[in-house]
Amino acid sequence: MAKPQVGNVSDELHVLVEQAETASLVRVKARTFTDQRVLLDGSEWISCRFVRCQIAVVLGAFRVDAQCSFEDCRIRYNGPAGRVYDLITANSTQSHHARDRT
Question: For residue range 4-30, what is the model confidence (pLDDT) as tens digits?
Answer without folding.
Answer: 555 566 677 767 766 666 568 999 999
